[in-house]
Amino acid sequence: MLELDNIKLSYGSSQILNGVNLSVKRGDVVSIIGPSGTGKTTLLRCINYLAKPSSGNITFDQIRMDYQSVNKAAVQAIRLRTAMVFQQFNVFKNMTVIQNVMDPLMVVQRKSEDEARKIALEELDRVGLSAKRDHYPSQLSGGQLQRTGIARALAVRPDVILFDEPTSSLDPELVGEVLKVIKDVTSSGITSLLVTHEMQFAKSVSSRIVFMDKGVVASEGSPADIFDTPSNPRLAQFLNSEHSL
Ligand SMILES: Nc1ncnc2c1ncn2[C@@H]1O[C@H](COP(=O)(O)OP(=O)(O)OP(=O)(O)O)[C@@H](O)[C@H]1O
Ligand SMILES: [Mg+2]
């Protein structure tokens, strides 16, 4: 359903993505791991064109786009079918929890307020936040903020959900409640891409693991291939350093 082909991207004189290829099937749960600064976030952002590659192609179902001749309608169509969950939650501070979830439904999808409220309540129930629906972000824990972010992403019923280190800015005691929600989401069959440093979690939920290093996909395979029998020396070294943290 999603193919990235030879994606290249530079910031100034530094080449960040050096020809990334990635293929994702419907229903896949693909975790992207790799050292800091290797381009994982940038790669996710290329999918919805928040980051702008200098070359390469993306295919999203029937939508095909060459990054050298970007077509606004294609970008819009891809954005409508993806949703992203950010490390820093990205909830609006001046809106309540339920307003945050209703917002993209009304603004982007042009749903009525009643319909948006109905969907938002379903998604808040799914992430265990119904009781907090009228709270403002300042009244929530980090885990609750991130669950709001996840409900907001799910509410638009995306074809693909993109998680960028969704637990890495949480206090350790709040990580579990968010991972539990992500596990529910990924096991519901929605196609998911997850950038994470939670290796045990990636191993348990993923259908495939992609190891990025120096702006390319350096290794990929099943969780067992990657974690139990890593053939790439840089991958083995990376896994050792993560385990020793
Ligand atoms: N908007 C930007 N302008 C300039 N450089 C950027 C920008 N965004 C990212 N970079 C640089 O691109 C490189 C890759 O960044 P990216 O955030 O994709 O890495 P990452 O793999 O997600 O790292 P981490 O695991 O720390 O989140 C880094 O060197 C970063 O400093
Ligand atoms: Mg990142």
UniProtKB/TrEMBL annotation:
It is a peripheral membrane protein. Gene3D superfamilies: P-loop containing nucleotide triphosphate hydrolases. It is found in: Cell inner membrane. One of its GO terms (molecular function) is ATP binding. SUPFAM superfamilies: P-loop containing nucleoside triphosphate hydrolases. It comes from the Bacteria. SMART domains: AAA. Belongs to the ABC transporter superfamily. This is ATP-binding cassette domain-containing protein. Keywords: ATP-binding, Cell membrane, Membrane, Nucleotide-binding, Transport. Residues 2-239 form the ABC transporter domain. InterPro entries: AAA+_ATPase, ABC_ATPase_HisP-typ, ABC_transporter-like_ATP-bd, MetN_ABC_transporter-like, P-loop_NTPase. Pfam families: ABC_tran. It comes from Rahnella inusitata. The keyword rRNA-binding does not apply.
